[in-house]
Sequence to fold (99 residues):
Amino acid sequence: MMDAVRTKGVATDRAVARVLAAQAATPASAPTSPPQAPAADMARLSGIRAELSARPPVDGERVAQIKRAIATGTFPILPATIADRLLAVRYEWMSDEQA
Fold:
């Protein structure tokens, strides 16, 4: 089992302390507003958003192909691939756990 990487001793590091002190000494500037996109870009993005929201989130033809392949017994089931993906998901879940 792997232990999580810890950042021990970072607060006592002199270089880090100097950077933190310099950041605290500089006054905070007023927040700037984000740059505004031209109207043409906004119109184009709005059109793309409308087009994508009109489409279903799933490719119906691909789902139908998979259903036909399962029904006819031609859908490839590779146990090694399934095992690899299950292990990958498990390791991804484990990375969120505290060591």
